[in-house]
Amino acid sequence: VLEDLEWFVIDNLPCSLIPKIGELAQDAAGHDRYALVVDIRAGRFIDELDPALRALEAMGANTRILFLDASDDVLVRRYEDTRRRHPLSEGT
CB atoms < 10 A from the CB of 34, how many? Predict the structure, then answer.
């Protein structure tokens, strides 16, 4: 949806790269709205999210956190449709 609204969206971005995107955005012509997706796939690196957001704010970026949630049934069906193993599933 955000891409349809002409946002520049980056999915599964490592938290440590968020400040770099902020730097690049300052120099980029034509894009002024970015959506950076961070989720459970970040694993233990999720601890880097708060410092990364603070770095963006120090650059003058206006940040918002949008938390999306779905039922387990919807998530399982989504992953079954893509035939990918869910990031939190056990085993191989």
Answer: 20
